[in-house]
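Figure 6 in text form: structure in, sequence out.
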């Protein structure tokens, strides 16, 4: 009788986001990367497939030569295969074809250069798959890809049928597909090794052509929760079967000691066995991702349905066809993600236009210099495509403000290079300003971008006539890298402190105009739990002027809206005009609020003026260490240093506010003035941090997302407000 056997490819995925903190790199290296590779190096009879993000591999090359040397030794002895993917871990679905190929070739070239290995396999960031992937992966020179078994379920393929490879195609270009085993992914390293071995034993057969693919994040083997202790120190106890031996060596010993387990790389398996059949996979990611992407209420319902089906033996056929959300919906769920993504597309369009214009250059010397700068600009764009901060699930993702800041920094860096290319090779002026009407957010509504050599200002007339991005180019710094406090499904969990959670009704943009009762508390306004009386807070403004004059630009917006009369269901007509002038490093804003004259309804407008205040959102974002943020006002004298901590809530009367990010030597200054036909006192100014309550790899955390400053004005029948914003 032929002995049963099973092929067992083992894959480890090493990744850190672009611009991850150095302390994190060092910590993860010591707890996970180094001990894992040391163990792999020791078990030379076991084959491994490894994947490294390009930016992490760069870090190893620059900082850990001994680590790299071990990889080179294992490559020479044929023990490891290294697979490719996007150099900076993009989600391929949301980047253009050209960028997909460039990112994949960049990583494959580095692997070939450093280790002498031909890259044949593709790692997909977050295992996001779309049906057109085979053609561009084939064009990038890759032969196979790894996806979750979740991708196969709705095709009717059962668990046992995933123990083989398949082939798929797009545009006639073929690609082999391997399925990652879900059971083993969840078992290791949390459960003793015998449970994984028992699973493999049940999967083995006499024919011997089956393949169970195990994959794990390298970080999971040493950094997540208690895994360093489990993997390298004490393992699972005597009663659990591993006799206290650390999980990683115990797991590798099991493979050595059971000769029916055949260690193999994916390329070797592919060369040894044909694909089982042709297959076409639907759009998918891993199962949890498909839940996380759903809107809050649907997400909770979906998870309940999935768990009920998953563990009911009588409902497994139903479970096969249960599909969750679509990864791209993150760009809808989090408008901040959409903003980063659309800015990336906007900047790369600018770069392509410069490329096309530079084709007219004749002198080779100039052409070589220009090409070098163009390459640098593309690299900055590729770095901005790193996927981590475009979504949110189990970990912080879009909530990690320093990762969003990284995206904007790289995109603004690319714009600065584009400016230098225009100046040096296309004879454009050093100082410039342009006004670009564009459907930037791709929502069928027109936005306006003002671009200059110093500032970029992004306006959304249809969302309250607000500003949603301000880039200060000398520092490559987006002042409006704030995050709205979005509702999340886990906010309803029993272990969540509900008192800490504040949720916004409106996106955290600048110049959002609010009408609220004068008796509203600071706390109600901070938590966005007040009653809104105006139609202007998120209403649509019309663009009535759009012009530039020399090095200045002026945009004029207007909404003819209304205000609810307090203690009444009646509404009263009101118009607001916003004039936004950009010049040098200043933004000058003029707001004109005017109530319509209706003699017979004089009492209604008087009711509004008597009982309501007008507030204007002036949020901003500083990056880095919050202890190095300071603020001051010409109207205040702080004798106690702690009172001028920027992230502390504070209310004062004045007309001036200045904040400084000492880490970047960046200053932001607001000057306020109110001009009305009635006498008015000084302006009340509310200042408070924007803090989101998010789930991260460290559990529930409050995360600083910016500061909101709300100057609060008394109303009159005609009110004129001037705001000057200066950045330097």
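Output sequence:
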């Amino acid at each position: 009788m032929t002995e049963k056997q099973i092929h067992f490819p083992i894959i480890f995925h090493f990744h850190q986001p672009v611009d991850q903190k150095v302390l994190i790199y060092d910590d993860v290296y010591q707890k996970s990367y180094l001990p894992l590779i040391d163990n792999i190096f020791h078990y030379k009879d076991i084959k491994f497939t490894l994947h490294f993000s390009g930016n992490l591999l760069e870090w190893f090359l620059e900082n850990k030569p001994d680590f790299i040397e071990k990889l080179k030794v294992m490559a020479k002895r044929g023990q490891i295969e290294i697979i490719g993917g996007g150099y900076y871990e993009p989600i391929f679905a949301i980047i253009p074809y050209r960028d997909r190929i460039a990112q994949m070739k960049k990583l494959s070239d580095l692997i070939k250069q450093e280790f002498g290995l031909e890259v044949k396999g593709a790692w997909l960031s977050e295992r996001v798959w779309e049906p057109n992937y085979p053609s561009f992966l084939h064009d990038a020179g890759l032969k196979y890809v790894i996806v979750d078994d979740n991708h196969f379920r709705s095709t009717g393929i059962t668990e046992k049928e995933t123990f083989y490879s398949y082939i798929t195609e797009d545009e006639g270009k073929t690609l082999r597909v391997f399925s990652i085993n879900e059971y083993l992914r969840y078992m290791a390293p949390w459960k003793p090794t015998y449970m994984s071995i028992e699973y493999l034993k049940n999967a083995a057969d006499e024919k011997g052509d089956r393949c169970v693919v195990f994959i794990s994040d390298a970080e999971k083997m040493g950094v997540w929760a208690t895994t360093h202790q489990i993997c390298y120190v004490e393992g699972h106890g005597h009663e659990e079967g591993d006799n206290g031996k650390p999980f990683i060596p115990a797991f590798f010993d099991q493979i050595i000691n059971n000769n029916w387990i055949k260690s193999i790389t994916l390329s070797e398996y592919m060369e040894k066995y044909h694909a089982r059949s042709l297959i076409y996979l639907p759009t998918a990611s891993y199962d949890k991702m498909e839940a996380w992407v759903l809107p809050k209420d649907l997400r909770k319902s979906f998870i309940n349905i999935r768990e009920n089906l998953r563990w009911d033996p009588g409902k497994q056929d139903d479970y096969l066809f249960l599909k969750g959300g679509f990864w791209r919906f993150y760009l809808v769920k989090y408008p901040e993600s959409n903003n980063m993504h659309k800015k990336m597309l906007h900047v790369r369009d600018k770069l392509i236009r410069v490329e096309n214009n530079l084709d007219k250059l004749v002198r080779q010397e100039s052409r070589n210099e220009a090409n070098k700068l163009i390459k640098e600009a593309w690299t900055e764009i590729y770095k901005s495509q790193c996927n981590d901060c475009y979504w949110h699930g189990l970990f912080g993702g879009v909530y990690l403000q320093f990762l969003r800041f990284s995206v904007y920094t790289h995109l603004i860096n690319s714009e600065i290079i584009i400016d230098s290319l225009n100046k040096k090779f296309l004879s454009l002026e050093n100082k410039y300003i342009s006004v670009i009407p564009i459907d930037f957010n791709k929502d069928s509504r027109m936005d306006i971008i003002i671009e200059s050599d110093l500032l970029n200002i992004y306006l959304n007339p249809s969302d309250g006539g607000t500003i949603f991005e301000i880039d200060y180019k000398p520092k490559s710094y987006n002042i409006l890298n704030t995050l709205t406090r979005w509702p999340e499904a886990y906010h309803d969990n029993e272990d969540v402190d509900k008192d800490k959670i504040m949720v916004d009704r409106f996106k955290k943009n600048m110049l959002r105009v609010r009408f609220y009762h004068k008796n509203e508390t600071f706390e109600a306004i901070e938590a966005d739990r007040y009653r809104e009386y105006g139609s202007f807070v998120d209403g649509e403004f019309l663009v009535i002027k759009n012009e530039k004059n020399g090095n200045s630009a002026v945009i004029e917006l207007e909404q003819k809206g209304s205000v609810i009369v307090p203690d009444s269901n009646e509404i009263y007509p009101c118009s607001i005009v916003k004039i936004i002038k950009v010049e040098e490093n200043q933004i000058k804003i003029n707001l004109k609020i005017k109530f319509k004259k209706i003699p017979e309804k004089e009492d209604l407008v008087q009711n509004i003026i008597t009982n309501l205040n007008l507030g204007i959102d002036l949020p901003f974002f500083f990056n880095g260490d919050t202890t190095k943020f300071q603020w001051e006002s010409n109207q205040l004298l702080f004798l106690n240093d702690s009172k001028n901590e920027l992230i502390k809530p504070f209310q004062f009367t004045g007309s001036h506010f200045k904040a400084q990010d000492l880490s970047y030597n960046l200053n932001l200054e607001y000057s306020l003035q109110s001009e009305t036909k009635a006498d008015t006192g000084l302006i009340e100014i509310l200042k408070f941090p924007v803090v989101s309550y998010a789930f991260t790899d460290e559990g529930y955390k409050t995360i600083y997302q910016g500061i909101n400053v709300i100057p609060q004005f008394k109303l009159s029948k005609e009110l004129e407000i001037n705001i000057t914003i200066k950045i330097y």
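Caption detail: The two ends are 80 Å apart (CA to CA).
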